[in-house]
Design a protein that fits this description.
The protein has 98 residues and is mostly beta strands. The protein has one helix and seven strands. Strands 1, 2, 3, 4, 5, 6 and 7 form a seven-stranded antiparallel β-sheet that branches. Strand 4 and strand 5 form a beta hairpin. The radius of gyration is 12 Å and the shape is globular. The relative contact order is 0.37.
């Protein structure tokens, strides 16, 4: 199951530094417009999403997680999930082999 931490941190440089120190790779910024939907899918690696601005909803195992600025969500590899963007959103993505 995904884990959600409300860090309050939205500084991109600080987030990138933290993720690098923790061993995350493929760290990049991603933005989506309001109304964007991602059908159910999986990722081959452990994933993190750290919200810089806006609002992102992730649905995993029938549970909806509302991610807002400063929120950090981690999900396990190969877990089916979908996403919806109620409000323009930008976030940092990264992967880790666990």
């Amino acid at each position: 199951m995904a884990t959600l931490e409300r860090t309050g941190i939205t500084d991109e440089a600080e987030i990138r530094s933290t993720l690098e120190e923790e061993g995350w790779f493929n760290i990049f910024r991603w933005c989506d417009a309001a109304g964007t939907r991602y059908a159910e899918h999986t990722h081959p690696y452990h994933e993190v999403r750290w919200i810089l601005s806006g609002h992102l909803q992730i649905v995993e195992n029938g549970v909806t997680l509302d991610l807002l600025p400063g929120d950090r969500m981690e999900s396990e590899a190969n877990v089916p999930h979908s996403a919806y963007v109620p409000e323009d959103v930008c976030y940092i993505c990264a992967s880790r082999k666990d």
